[in-house]
Amino acid sequence: MRGSLTRPILLVFGILFAIYHFGWRGETGIRRVRYGVSSNSRSTGARTNPGSLESLEDLGLAEDECRDIFPGLMNEVDRTVANGPFKRQLAALHQIYRAITSSPTPFVYARPGHIASTATTSSSSFVTQPASKAHSFPMPHFSAWSWALPFLNSLPAASSVITNLEATLPFSRKDPRAVWRGTPWFANPSGVNPRLRQDLVRVAGKGNAAWADVQSLDWTTNSASASNGLPIQDFCRYKYVIHTEGVSYSGRFSFHRMCRSVILTPPLEWFEPTTHLLRPVFSTALLRGRAEFEVEMRENPRAHPSKRTREIWPIDVNPDDANIVFVKPDWSDLEETVAWLEAHPSVAEGIAARQRDQFVGGGYVSKAAETCYWRSLLKGWKEVAQVDEGDLPEGVTFEDFILSPEAR
Question: Which SMART domains does the record cross-reference, listed alphabetically (predicted)?
């Protein structure tokens, strides 16, 4: 039994180890794949035209081409690599490996997608770098491949449908309400507002607000689709899309960013690969004006945004440069923010346009960008976890070797 378990366990654990710690041993032997064009048809030294439709389908971009065409895409990888090699995580993983492979009975190790950071929680992994106020999830969401829900599908499929919708529906003709669908209890108990979704339903739920179309998903039909769910592209029919993070980051965010709509959300606590590209304007600055906003920030320690939020988002921009609006975490100024945007339609439309133009127009939702990022992510792990050839003294134990400079 033990022998039959060892091979699949080693395979699965190796994949988990590589993905979790950004692994790749180099580009050698990786076949360059390009949709519709063989690798041999690419002339030596030729470069894909940055920003062209062709480049967004090109899965064989070199690293310098990836960085030219998708500026800022690799920031999360570069930031993590700059932290340098890791040791304690490696030791912990080898402890787990030893325990699994030596088990006399079948043993399953399952790691959750989110690990709470509370003092009372025992976690299977932990951060050894200086603590950050923001949480990071540097792997692309699986919806870039496919999401097996009838109202979501994949990012590429949704992008095509949304592009057709946006081409025929001007911002001025969109539904002026703020829209949201979701599961109220699905929230992070250690987040800034553990009742984030419940509070949203209380403030703007069905029957409570004429300016909003906010509903809890009804799963009573016990099917794969809630009875009041919306196809993902239909969110783009609204001027304002409300976004909520869940237990961790929310996979729907990438879908919403394809809309030419204003995204309204409390300041994000989780950073995905392209979250750092957001240019937020805080609702307080929008409603009170920049001068009054700055005074309130200096004089009122409880002002929005909080000190913690400012550490995560140290810079906000003026409305004419913003591509997203951060409202208060308790949603207390959500209605006022929607009313302000309705009274300033050119500002609202500008925020919506910049949102889609950056994410979709910049190609960050494309297959090429996703492929570029994965390669950069894996190569980044190689930079901090590679094994160099070197002379080792005789008799060194494996436990000491794996933590030594020679094992990097």
Answer: CAP10
Report the candidate in 115, 48, 88, 9 with the shortest Cα–Cα distance to residue 366: 48
For the chain, the maximum distance between any two Cα atoms, rounded to a whole number of angstroms, is 76
Report the C-alpha gap between 49 and 69 in whole angstroms: 8
Q: What is the mean pLDDT of the chain?
A: 77
Buried-state track 48-64, b at ≥16 Cβ within 10 A, e below 16:
beeeeeebbbbebbeee
Domains in the chain, CATH or no CATH each: 2-137+366-407 (no CATH), 149-361 (3.40.50)
Query: What are the tens digits of pLDDT across the range 346-379?
Result: 999 999 999 999 999 999 988 888 888 888 888 8
Q: Does pTM top 0.85 for this prediction?
A: no
φ and ψ at residue 136, rounded to 5 degrees:
-125, 135
Task: Give the separation between CA 66 and CA 74, rounded to whole angstroms.
Answer: 9
H or E stretch covering 136:
strand 135-136
Structure tokens at 115: 């690990």
Query: C-alpha 154: how far from its chain's center?
Result: 15
Q: What would you report as the CA-atom Rg of the chain, rounded to the nearest whole angstrom?
A: 24
CA 49 to chain centre: 27
In the structure encoding, which two tokens stand for residue 345, read together? 């339609």
Report residue 21 as tokens.
């710690």
- What is the b/e burial string over 96-113, where b = at least 16 CB atoms within 10 angstroms of the residue's CB? bbeebeebeeeeeeeeee
Residue 254: burial class (beta carbons within 10 Å; 0-12, 13-18, 19+): buried
Instruction: Decide: 26 and 382 in contact? Cβ < 8 Å.
Output: yes
Helix (H) or strand (E) holding 315: none
